[in-house]
Specification:
The chain has a two-stranded antiparallel sheet. By secondary structure, it is mainly α. Helices cover 71% and strands 7% of the residues.
Length: 113
């Protein structure tokens, strides 16, 4: 009888191992691959990134135009790529004033060096 009880104990697997074996039965390599592909479709959609950029620029212009009549936004994105400058003026007079201000600013910066 002692031998039978030893066999019963040795034939029992820890629950964590049997849980792993159960998942192996249900998730094949093809299943895992399809799950990964579906996940990547949602995170790497290039079209969404382009639309999001336009929406972000529009939101920036809306917020900045509440505080400034005319402005130029220059800078770099989070990937260190230069963004296309955003130029905003409500009329020709503001656009000319902004261009004149930019010229005088850059000339003063060159003189200081």
């Amino acid at each position: 009888m002692k031998d039978e009880s030893n066999e019963d104990e040795s034939s029992k697997k820890p629950e964590s191992l049997s849980a792993n074996n159960d998942t192996e039965k249900y998730l094949t390599d093809a299943d895992l691959e399809s799950l990964i592909r579906e996940s990547l479709k949602h995170t790497l959609n290039v079209n969404k990134v382009v639309r999001r950029k336009k929406a972000t620029e529009k939101a920036l212009v809306n917020v900045l135009s509440e505080f400034m009549d005319a402005f130029i936004l220059l800078g770099y994105d989070t990937k260190n790529k230069a963004i296309e400058p955003i130029f905003f003026a409500k009329n020709d007079m503001q656009a000319d004033a902004l261009a004149h201000y930019m010229q005088s600013y850059f000339i003063s910066c060159m003189r200081d060096k």
